[in-house]
Amino acid sequence: QVQLVESGGGSVRAGGSLTLSCVASGKIDGISARSHTLGWYRQAPGKQREFVASISKGFRPIYADFARGRFLVSRDNGRVAVDLEMSELKPEDTGVYYCKRAYDEDDIGANGDWGQGIQVTVFS
User: Fold this and answer.
1) pLDDT tens digits, residue range 18-62?
2) DSSP code, position 28
3) CA 31 to CA 23: how far, in whole Å?
């Protein structure tokens, strides 16, 4: 059974930091998440879900413009997890953050599975 379990959300004052983690389990066609692209999206109230960052099987990171320089995405194939270290947080970073496992070695946009989402609230 494929599962993505997120943790680490919460409330933080603007300028602060939070780290989100997502542990991926289960195999698709015999392939574990170690061979898939992992990443993060977010959805603010009243807005569409948007891409935040991803990291490929080969550890190549990609960032949305708003995340570059403030967020750091990493993966740990021992834990089979993807982490998102967020710093210099702004109120506009508030939203529900979703972990995604894409069934592709390099493309977060491929079909995949989603975590249940975790709330991040940044207050001023």
Assistant:
1) 999 999 999 988 899 999 999 999 999 999 999 999 999 999 999
2) B
3) 15
Q: Classify strands 37-43 and 50-55 as parallel, antiparallel or unpaired.
A: antiparallel
Average pLDDT over the chain, rounded to an integer: 96
- pLDDT given at position 67: 98
What is the DSSP secondary-structure string of 3-69? EEEEE--EEEETT--EEEEEEEE--BTTB-GGGSEEEEEEE-TTS--EEEEEE-TT--EEE-TTTTT
Burial 74-111 (b: 16+ CB within 10 A, else e): bbeeeebbbbbbbeebeeebbbbbbbbbbbbeeebeee
Token pair in block for residue 115? 């975590």
Estimate to the nearest angstrom the gap between the alpha carbon of 33 and the chain centroid. 14
Question: What does the pLDDT read at residue 28?
Answer: 87
